[in-house]
Amino acid sequence: MRKYLALLPALVWISVGQGQAQEEESISDPDSSGVVNNRLLPTSTPVLLFSDAEDDLKEEKKSKKKKRKKNVYFGERTKKTLIKSSFRDQVTYQVFHFTLTKKEPDPYIRDIYWYDSKNKAVKKSGYNPSRGYLLHGPYERRIGEQVVETGMYYYGTKHGRWMTFDGKNILQDKRHYDEGWPKDSRITYYNRGERKIEKLTPIEYELEEGNFYHFYPDGQVAVTGEYSYGEKVGLWTEYWPTETEKTVKKREIQYQSEAFTNGYKPYIRAEWDKEGNLIYRHN
């Protein structure tokens, strides 16, 4: 009896250790659960998409006629700054505005532009509110004294008209955006009158470019993925329709990491059941 009692602490320790090991394995295994905890993942269709940009620009033009408060854009106070960089004999200036308001980026938009105050750089991915600020207001890029790019930002997204010029001040490109979405983006509806969006396909230069979304009729996300130069790239994810607030992955399909990768064959990376339990993983 004493022998068994002496073994008990060791057995308890082994049991606890195994439990911790299993828990750590579950945490370290990204496929162990299909339940999505990413707070930035859209859980319903975007609201008022493509409806307010022109009105915003009209209001912006009206406000220009009035005496505008200095460094205030779309009702938001901003700070103006300049970044100077040199390469060989060429000096580039970026003049832009940013807001101190900590606003969560739009999860539907792929490119979120922000000012990395520590590294003194403008970036379009990896936004971290503890490291920088969303661009908001007019932007201008110059090479020497020559303006080569102008546009407007709205909480980190390109908004309104953007233009680029060559070294002789000749217009090279003009694009229009609505809070980060290219104006030529294609939308299909389940019910256009009720604005029930089925698919959002970003289009630039008549090619798919950017984040793609497919929604269920009730607004839940059905598929997310990315296009580059008209081709599917990266990881595309399908989701189960649910009656709860949880978002559960159904299948992940891996496409080429870059467009025009010859000979690449897409494959199913993993699958989950409706409860989020892993049922298949590609080896």
- Shape estimate: globular
For the biggest sheet, the summary is: 9 strands, antiparallel
User: What ranges have pLDDT less than 50 throughout 5 or more consecutive residues?
Assistant: 1-27, 48-55
Count of separate structural domains: 2
Question: How many β-strands, per DSSP?
Answer: 22
Q: How many helix segments?
A: 2
Report helical residue fraction. Answer: 10-25%
Radius of gyration over all CA atoms, rounded: 25 Å
Q: What is the H/E string?
A: HEHEEEEEEEEEEEEEEEEEEEEE
Keywords: Signal
Signal peptide: 1-21
Protein name: Antitoxin component YwqK of the YwqJK toxin-antitoxin module
Organism: Cyclobacterium lianum
Write the SSE topology.
Layout: H1 2-28, E1 35-36, H2 53-65, E2 72-73, E3 76-77, E4 79-87, E5 90-98, E6 114-116, E7 121-123, E8 132-143, E9 146-154, E10 157-165, E11 171-178, E12 181-182, E13 186-191, E14 196-201, E15 203-204, E16 207-208, E17 210-215, E18 221-228, E19 231-239, E20 247-254, E21 267-272, E22 278-281
Antiparallel strand pairs: 1-20, 2-3, 4-5, 5-8, 6-7, 6-8, 8-9, 9-10, 10-11, 11-12, 13-14, 14-17, 15-16, 17-18, 18-19, 19-20, 20-21, 21-22
